[in-house]
C-alpha cells in the first residue's frame, strides 16, 4: 500500500481505497481485507471440495445403480434362459415319455393281435385255442 502517512490515500490488497490514520489504520484495513480474502478463498475451496465430493458421490451412486441394473438385467436374462432351457428339457422329456408310452401301447396291441391270430390259426388246425370272440375255446 502506498502512502502510510496521515491523510494519504492508499489501495489495499482487496482493491479498496483506504486512508491511513497515523500509520495504523492502513494496516488494519489491509489485515481486514486480507482476512476477507482468506475467508473468501477458504469458502470457495470448501464449496469446491463440497461440490467435488457431492459430484463424486453422485457419480458413485449413479455407477452403483447402473451396475445394479446391469446385474439385475443379466440375472433376469440368465434366469429367463435357464427357465427356457428347463422348460425345453421338460417338454422333451414329456414328449419322449409320451412317445414311449404310445409305442409300448402299440406293441402291446400288436402282440395281443398276433397272439389272437396265432390262437385262431391253431384253432383252425384243430389244436384248440381261442374262438373268434377272443374267449378261450372249450
What keywords describe this structure?
138 residues; mainly alpha; two-stranded antiparallel ribbon; 2 strands; 4% strand; rod-shaped; disordered N terminus
How many beta strands in the DSSP annotation?
2
Shape: rod-shaped
C-alpha termini separation: 143 Å
What is the makeup of the main sheet?
A: 2 strands, antiparallel
Please indicate the percent range of residues in DSSP E strands (runs of 2 or more).
under 5%
Number of separate helices: 1
Secondary-structure class: mainly alpha
Low-pLDDT runs: 1-12
The average pLDDT is: 81
Radius of gyration: 52 Å
What is the H-and-E element order? EEH
Q: Helical percent range?
A: over 70%
What is the number of domains? Answer: 1
Placed side by side, the strands forming the largest sheet appear as 1-2
Entry summary:
With 138 residues, this protein is mainly α.
Structure description:
By secondary structure, this protein is mainly alpha-helical. 72% of the residues lie in helices and 4% in strands. It is built from 1 helix and 2 strands; from the N terminus they run ββα. The N and C termini lie far apart (143 Å).
Amino acid at each position: 500500500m502506498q502512502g502510510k502517512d496521515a491523510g494519504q490515500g492508499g489501495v489495499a490488497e482487496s482493491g479498496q481505497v483506504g486512508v491511513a490514520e497515523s500509520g495504523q489504520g492502513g494496516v488494519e484495513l489491509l489485515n481486514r481485507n486480507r482476512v476477507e480474502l482468506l475467508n473468501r478463498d477458504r469458502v470457495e475451496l470448501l464449496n469446491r471440495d463440497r461440490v467435488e465430493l457431492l459430484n463424486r458421490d453422485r457419480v458413485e451412486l449413479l455407477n452403483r445403480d447402473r451396475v445394479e441394473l446391469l446385474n439385475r438385467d443379466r440375472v433376469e436374462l440368465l434366469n429367463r434362459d435357464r427357465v427356457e432351457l428347463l422348460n425345453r428339457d421338460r417338454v422333451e422329456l414329456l414328449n419322449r415319455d409320451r412317445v414311449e408310452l404310445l409305442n409300448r401301447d402299440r406293441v402291446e396291441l400288436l402282440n395281443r393281435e398276433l397272439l389272437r391270430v396265432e390262437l385262431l390259426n391253431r384253432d383252425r388246425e384243430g389244436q384248440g385255442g381261442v374262438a373268434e370272440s377272443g374267449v378261450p375255446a372249450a
